[in-house]
Amino acid sequence: MIYKASVIFLSTLAITLAQDEISNKKFPENFMFGTATAAYQVEGGWNEDGKGENIWDYLTHSNPNPIADGSTADISCDSYHKYKEDVAMLKELGVDHYRFSISWSRVLPNGTADKINLAGVTYYKNLIKELKSNNIEPLITLYHWDLPQVLQEQGGWTDEFIIDAFADYAKVCFELFGEDVKYWLTFNEPKQTCLYGYDYGSIAPKIYSPGVGGYKCTHNLLRAHAKAWHIYDQEFRAQQNGKVSITIDTPWFEPDSDSEGDQEAAERQIQFTFGWFANPIFNGDYPEVMKTRVAARSAAEGLNQSRLPEFTDEEITYILGTHDYLGLNMYSSYMVKEAAEPEIGDPSYDNDIGISIYQSDDWETGASSWLNVTPWGIRRLLNWLKKTYNTPIFITENGFSDIDGKLNDDRRINYYKNYISNVRNAIEDGVDVLGYTAWSLMDNFEWMQGFKEKFGLYQVDFDSPNRTRTPKDSVAFFKKVIETRCLVDVCEE
Ligand code: NOJ
Prior knowledge:
Blueprint: H1 12-18, E1 32-36, H2 39-42, H3 55-60, H4 79-93, E2 97-101, H5 104-107, H6 118-133, E3 137-143, H7 149-152, H8 161-177, E4 183-188, H9 190-198, H10 213-240, E5 243-249, E6 252-255, H11 260-283, H12 288-300, H13 313-319, E7 326-329, E8 333-338, H14 349-353, E9 355-358, H15 375-389, E10 393-397, H16 410-429, E11 433-439, E12 458-460, E13 469-471, H17 473-484
Parallel strand pairs: 1-2, 1-11, 2-3, 3-4, 4-5, 5-7, 6-8, 7-10, 10-11
Antiparallel strand pairs: 8-9, 12-13
Helix pairs in contact: 4-6, 8-10, 9-10, 15-16, 16-17
Bound molecules: 1-deoxynojirimycin.
């Protein structure tokens, strides 16, 4: 979202890799194929049956409405009423799993565990039951950006009270639903929550606090993640036998040249983007390069301490190892060049990184400003993740947006085919990939873009009271891939 193409660039490497042949290797039988959605984006029923208000309800109901098309997700796909149709679509696709999220304020309308909304619990129980009876494994995200508004009014993610509030909520969910759930994610894309929500101020709750808010939010979010993981580990794992992790998003960052400066800049960029969240969980503490740079720039700004908060030794140990796999959301790539050190002035996360970044004009783009088609990037990223964290990876999102949402969506098919092929190549390279999740099952509310950018395999008619769902061509494509575990006509056995 933040990065803009600035220079015309032709990467011979990129072109060669983009034209890679489609893999003719089968995916292993136990490899999991699925699709995803998130509560606020599809459910609707925003104030039904006792649900509390969340920060997206609040934002979309504010005047003037800041969403690109002036929409809200008050009804959206109406999955709150139509979940059986959703599951029928999943069945038709033949998926192994369905990733969806629980709306915190639907289960706990006050944000706190003292009041549980039975109707909300029943909704998720029914959805899980419907999935299980169709042999579809639920993969549940606890937090996909929709904080109860009442908790935001107490300070939200930049206030420490949120750690216990989230842990209580997670415990309620493990207790109520955990018997039927094998895969949990605590957070979806924490960078979006913290950087865009509390630093750039571009998504809910739209707090503008550059170079400060994002770090504070992350410091609480990581401790909240760790606490939820420990609760599961100590109180539920033995009986429920599931896996808990976090999903982190990043594009791939390709160095602009072989020069040491560009290589170092690309590594620094991914450490600030991905390592910020993954390093404390997988390797212990924030990445060295983040600690050093933010401390140095904070000192130069005249501050007595770093804007990047420090973990205590106990916290480092407490957070380290709180994963049972790694969730990854990946869509695009960027080219990275070294740059002169940004001048000291007002604090800024981007200046803390201090590199230069661009997308090649040569790359095909989707409807979303940040989305480009660089399938080779996912293979490189998966290899980088193996080298850096050496852990099983579940791809929890990947997909393509268009504006019209038309049924004949060849560009989406092409995107999926090439990305999935590169995932298969990464497996061949030795990366342990557990599954692949297409974003999204159906067109839905794309946050600040409203219904303007469409990612669905199924089209949704938002003008019909029925919210009629119709399969796009990509449904037949994905269905065949799942059925045959193969991307070409005949695969090697
Ligand atoms: C990121 C988010 O997890 C999801 O909510 C969003 O719709 C897609 N990727 C596409 O932007």
